[in-house]
Amino acid sequence: MPGGHLIPRGHHRGGQDVRRISRPPALPARGCRLGAKSEQWIHPRPELAVHRYCFKRSPHSRSLPGIFVDRRSLHPNVGKSHFTLTEPRRAAPPGLDRTKSRLPILPTATRPATFPTSGEAADLPTRWGGTCPWHNLSMLTRVHRKLFVREPRFASFLAPDALAINEARLKHLATLNLPIENKSVLEVGGGIGLLTGFFEERGCTVTSTDGRKQNVAEHKKRHPERRLARLNLEQPGAIDAMGKFDVVFCYGTLYHLANPEPPLEALSRISDMILLETVLTPGEDEAVPNVPELLFANQALKGTGSRPTRAWVLNRLKRFWGNGYISVTQPSHPDFPLDFSVPKTTLNVRAIFVGSKKPLSNPLLSTEVPVRHLPI
C-alpha cells in the first residue's frame, strides 16, 4: 500500500500514532490534496482494514505501514464495502514504484436482498477469506458511531437491539424451570449488570464480574450494593481464585473469547452448573473458528473472538460438567433460529446450553443437537 501521512499526528503509543476522528465523514481528509487522484480498491479482508484505518505509521517505528482510507467510505449510507486509497501529499522517494505494492482490484460486491445460496456470489466467502463484504456493514456502522458520533461510553449495552435480546433471553430462561433459586451465582461477562437482577429476584447470592474495569466501575455506580469483581476469563488461574459457586451464568460472553475451551474447563472446577448462551457457527461438525472483533465495551478484550458450533459447545459441557444439554426451545428473537439448516438471515445465530454435574430430568433440555428447535 502507499506510504505517507493521511491523518494528523496523535498520541504516540507502542510505536504507533493513534488518533480519534471527530469531524463529519463528508469533509475531505486532512493531509490529502483536494482533487487528488484517487483509485478505489476492494480490500480482501475488509474487517482487518477497518481495524487498521485509524492508525498511521509513526516516524519512530517501522512496524506499521501507512494505510490511507477515505473516511467517507466508512459512512453507513455507503452501499459498498470499499476503501479508497488516496495518493499522499508527500511525493514518493526516487526509485520507489508504489504500484507494485498495491492490492489487485477486485470486483465490487454490493449487499444483495437476501444472502446467496448458489452461483458465483455464494462462493464469495471462500474468495474473501471466509468473510463476505456485506457481512461487515453492521460493523462499519458501529465504527462510524464510535468515531464520528458522540456516543455515551456504555451505549452499546443500552441500545434498543441489546435491550430487546436481553428481554428475550430472560423470558426464555424463566421458562426452563431450572433449580436455581437461593443459589450462589457467579456471573461472568456481566457488563454493567443488566441481567443480574434475574437471580436477585430468585433469592440468589450473586457475584458479578467483567473483564473491563470500566464496566465494573459503571456497574458499581449503578448498583453499589452488589458484589462485583474484575475477572478476565482468558486467565484460567484467575477463575480458580474466585472460589466455589452453585451456578455460573455465562450469557453473551463465550464467543468473545479467542480460545473458549480453557475458560470452560476452569469454570467447571468451581461450579456445579453453568447456564450458557452464545453466538454460534451453523453446522453439524465440531469447530470453533476465530473472528476479529472491535475493541468496544461489550466486545472481546483483545480484539479476537470465536464462533463455536452447537456440537462443539455441547460436547465440551459433557466433558467438563459430566452432563451437557441444549435447550429444545429458543427465545423469541431473530438471533435465535429454529432451524439451523436454513441459511441465516441475521448477523448472529445463538442457542442456549446447560451443563450440570447432576443429571437433569427436563423435557425442555436435550442431550443431542436437535434437528429443529421449538418456539417458547
What does this structure look like?
This protein is an alpha/beta fold. The protein has two domains: 1-108, no CATH class; 155-375, Vaccinia Virus protein VP39 (Rossmann fold). Helix content is 22%, strand content 19%. The protein contains ten helices and 17 strands. It has helices at 46-52, 124-127, 137-148, 155-158, 160-175, 197-200, 213-222, 236-240, 261-269, 310-321; strands at residues 11-13, 16-18, 38-41, 55-57, 83-86, 184-187, 205-210, 227-230, 245-251, 271-279, 290-292, 304-306, 323-327, 329-330, 350-356, 365-366, 374-375. The strands form five sheets. Strands 8-7-6-9-10-15-13-16 form an eight-stranded mixed β-sheet. Strand 9 (245-251), helix 9 (261-269) and strand 10 form a beta-alpha-beta unit. Helix 9 packs parallel to helix 10. The longest helix has 16 residues, at 160-175. It is globular. It starts with 10 loop residues before the first strand and ends with a strand.
- What's the gyration radius in Å? 23 Å
- Biggest pleated sheet: 8 strands, mixed
Spatial ordering of strands, largest sheet: 8-7-6-9-10-15-13-16
Oligomer: single chain
CATH superfamily placement of the largest domain: Vaccinia Virus protein VP39
Unreliable spans: 1-90, 100-135
How much β-strand is present in the residues?
A: 15-25%
Q: Tell how many strands the DSSP assignment holds.
A: 17
Query: Could you tell me the mean pLDDT?
Result: 74
Number of helices: 10
Total discrete domains: 2
Helix content: 10-25%
Using the 3D structure, state the CATH architecture of the largest domain. Answer: 3-Layer(aba) Sandwich
Distance between the termini: 52 Å
**Structural class, from helix and strand content?**
alpha/beta
Report the principal-axis shape.
globular
> What's the CATH first level of the largest domain?
Alpha Beta
Q: How do the SSEs run, as a string of H and E? A: EEEHEEHHHHEHEHEHEHEEEHEEEEE
CATH topology of the largest domain: Rossmann fold
